[in-house]
Amino acid sequence: MSRDVSPSFLGAAFAQETGEVPICLLTVTHEDLEEPIYLSSDATTRLSEQPLVYGTDSRGEQYLYLPFEFTLPDDRGDSPPRVQLTMDNIDRSLVAVLRSFASPASVMMEIVLASDLDTVEITMPSLQMSDVTIGDRTITATLVADALINEPHPAGQFTPGAFPGLF
């Protein structure tokens, strides 16, 4: 599987040292939310003075800064892609939101570069939040792609036991 990314992104990814900053943008949706939650891994710009809020402006949307670390999934064929998010448990309102979901939230993950906030380099559109662990200091969430995407097709196998008329 190949992805089309910009030469700037490739140069930053393969450089030993770079001034380029990859930024992870998350769009969290759920049937219990009135509107999506937009989160950024980087405090790119000041969004408001009162209260003091930092975030990222990308394609006309404001993503609120929430410091988190993320790992990109590998492209293994034997399991669905997984993204690991780890964030500091500094605001109890985030815990309340996470505990209010009765079903998994959907998350779209996008990677942009700080030098070009309106160009999405990598998109993972259909991730489901699962395995949320809330600790004293950190919150860890696993984002998983739908397992049906990775199921073999057709689902069954044409074997003599299942289809004796074929043999």
Which key phrases capture this entry?
167 residues; single chain; 10% helix; mainly beta; 10-stranded mixed sheet; 10 strands; globular
Write the layout of secondary structure elements.
Blueprint: H1 7-14, E1 22-29, E2 37-40, E3 45-48, E4 53-58, E5 61-65, E6 68-71, E7 82-88, H2 92-100, E8 106-113, E9 116-134, E10 138-145
Parallel strand pairs: 2-5
Antiparallel strand pairs: 1-2, 1-8, 3-4, 4-5, 6-7, 7-10, 8-9, 9-10
Task: Summarize the structure in words.
It contains two helices and ten strands. The chain has 167 residues and is mainly β. A ten-stranded mixed sheet has the order 3-4-5-2-1-8-9-10-7-6, with no helix packed on it. A hairpin with a 7-residue loop joins strand 1 and strand 2 (37-40). The longest helix is centred in the middle third of the chain and has 9 residues, at 92-100.
In short:
The protein is mainly beta. It contains 2 helices and 10 strands.
Strand element count: 10
Helix content: 10-25%
**Radius of gyration (Å):** 20 Å
Structural class: mainly beta
pLDDT averaged over residues: 81
The largest β sheet comes out as:
10 strands, mixed
What is the string of SSEs from the N terminus onward? HEEEEEEEHEEE
Tally of individual helices:
2
Q: Which shape, going by the Cα principal axes? A: globular
Q: Give the termini distance in whole angstroms.
A: 36 Å
Strand content: 35-45%
Low-pLDDT regions: none
Q: What strand order characterises the main sheet?
A: 3-4-5-2-1-8-9-10-7-6
